[in-house]
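Action item from last meeting closed. Structure (277 res):
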């Protein structure tokens, strides 16, 4: 992913390689190819049906509705539908874990000493600590480009022509013009209603406007609700049971020194280490 982001032709080269060769070089890809081929087979079978049969087929799938819709032909190609299948599979997996997380919460709530997920969400300082941790971490460091093919995109005073790639990075959360003392861990910044401007002369906006650990827009992270649940329950459980003290850990252990789609610290660091008291 890191290499393909900088050299798009490398991804096309890999995609043009036969499955058996990629599977030989990376055996972990074999189940992925098996899934893709099975989905492709189903899509082709459904595409062979007449348009009228899409609405009368007894065993409908998401492909049945897409192919029977008034979407453009470009949105109904086998490749495009394979991409939709991958996204749909991921979202249903996320839903499973969300439901499972809710079941775990119900079990935990039977213990009167353990707060529930909904109760934890109402704790302002815990929320502030979580948000500040997400702001200081980087998530995906590589830019995620977007292209508007047919119309210009207006950004502030700039007009981005159609077909022009534009992107953002979560590193903007480390901008001193927005976040005062941006590399300091300061949860209190989220407990105020003060507004900030990203540059002199611009409209002042809430800090939440610049909070983008899960990206923004229609392509933002699908699993963010699950992530928030894990943050709340995980932090409350961990710090409610033990006291931790950093052990031979400096700022370099959490600094972004290298970018491999996700940020990595310097290779010589031993990571974040702590002792349990």
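Sequence:
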């Amino acid at each position: 992913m890191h290499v393909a982001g900088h050299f798009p032709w490398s991804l096309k080269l890999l995609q043009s390689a036969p499955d058996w060769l990629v599977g030989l070089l990376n055996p972990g890809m074999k189940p992925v190819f098996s899934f893709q081929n099975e989905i492709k087979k189903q899509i082709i079978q459904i595409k062979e049906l007449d348009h009228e049969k899409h609405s009368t087929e007894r065993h409908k799938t998401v492909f049945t509705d897409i192919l029977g819709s008034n979407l453009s032909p470009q949105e109904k190609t086998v490749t495009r539908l394979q991409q939709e299948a991958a996204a749909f599979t991921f979202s249903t997996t996320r839903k499973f874990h969300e439901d499972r997380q809710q079941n775990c919460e119900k079990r935990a709530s039977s213990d009167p000493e353990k707060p529930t997920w909904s109760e934890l969400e109402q704790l302002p300082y815990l929320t502030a600590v979580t948000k500040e941790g997400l702001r200081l971490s980087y998530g995906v460091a590589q830019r995620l480009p977007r292209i508007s093919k047919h119309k210009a995109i207006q950004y502030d005073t700039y007009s981005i022509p159609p077909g022009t790639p534009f992107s953002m990075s979560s590193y903007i959360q480390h901008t001193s013009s927005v976040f005062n003392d941006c590399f300091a861990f300061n949860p209190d910044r989220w407990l105020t209603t003060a507004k900030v401007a990203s540059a002199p002369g611009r409209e002042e906006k809430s800090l939440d406007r610049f909070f983008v650990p899960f990206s923004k827009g229609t392509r933002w992270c699908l699993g963010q609700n699950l992530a928030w649940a894990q943050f709340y329950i995980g932090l409350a459980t961990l710090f409610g049971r033990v006291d931790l003290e950093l052990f031979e850990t400096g700022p370099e252990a959490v600094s972004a020194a290298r970018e491999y789609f996700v940020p990595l610290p310097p290779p010589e660091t031993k990571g974040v280490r702590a002792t349990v008291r």
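Note appended to the action item: The first strand starts at residue 153 and ends at 155.
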